[in-house]
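Q: Got a minute? One more chain.
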Amino acid sequence: MKRLSIRNILVLGGSGFVGASLCEKLVERSGGAGGRITVPSRRPQRAQWLRTLPTLELPQADLGDDLVLGRLVAGHDAVINLVAILHGDKQQFRAVHVDLPRRLAAVCATQGVHRLIHVSALGVTADAPSAYLRSKAEGEAALLASGLDLTLLRPSVMFGERDRFINLFATLQGFAPLMPLAGAEAKMQPVWVDDVATAIVRCVDSPSTIGQTIECVGPAVFTLGELVRLAGRWSDHERTIVKLPEGLGRMQAWVMEHLPGQTMLSRDNLLSLRVPNVASGNLPGLDSLGIAVTDIHSVMPTVLAAKSGPARLDILRGPGSGYSRRG
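A: Always. Here it is, folded:
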C-alpha cells in the first residue's frame, strides 16, 4: 500500500492521556529514520517523561496565540490534534473544540501543511443534547470545510493505565460504602487507548484514510453501571450501585461541579450520557486499519490489581500526580 511521506509531526495535546501512548508509538514508527515529533505544552514540566523519548521536542507554548501556533505548525508534514476538555461552560467548549480547530486549519493552509488528523468523539451532532457534543460537531464541520487532507477519529470512552474513567470509579469504591450513580443505563463501547493510538499512527501513513471518519470502539457494549461494577470487582472493593433518577443525578452533578479541585461529573456530562456512546455501524472502524481491538477484560483487571495504597488516589489529585510513562 502506498504510504504518505511524513517525517516531522506536530502533536497538539500530546502530553495528556492519549498522547502518552501516541508519542511512544510515533517514536517507534520513526525507528531512528530521522524526522522529529513536536509536543507543545503550556506546562511541559508536567510531562517531563516525554523528554526521555528520542526525536521528540517538548517546547512550552500557548496555543491561544495565532503567531505561536503558526510557528509550531511551520516545518511539519502533519498535525495531530488531541486537544479537548470534558468539563467546562459553553464558551470554554467553543474555545477548545471549535475555535482552536478553525484557527489550526487556517494556520495549516497558510503554512502549506495539508495533513491533519483530528480526534473527536462518538455521538457528535449539531443537535446533540450536551454543549460538549455540539461543540465537537461544530469543530468537525470547521475542519471538513477547510479542504485539508483530513482524517477524523471518533473514539468511545477510552480505558488504560492512567484513564480518568475506570480508574476513577475503582478509586471511589475504595472508600465509599455505596456508589450513587446517575446515568447508570447509558451505553458505552469502551476502547483501549493503545488501540486508538495505533489507529492514529496508521492514519498518518495511509492516504486511503484521507476524507474518512473512523469510529474507534472496543468489541463489547456495556452500560455505565456494568462498567462501574467491574471497576469495583477488579480493584477488589465492589460496592452496591444505587441508580439515581434524573433529578437526583442533576443535583449530584451540580454539587460535584462546585466542589474544590478537578470536576469529576457535570450536568453537561449527564446530557452527553443520553447519547449512546457506541458505534453507529455506518462508518469504518478500527478493523479497517487492520487493528484487532482489545477487550477491556484483558487489560483493566491487571491494571487495577496492581494499584494499592496511596498511589490509587493519584486519579483524584488530577494531572501531574504520579504521572508515569504510560498514559
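A: Confidence is low (pLDDT under 50) at residues 319-327.
Q: Perfect, thanks.
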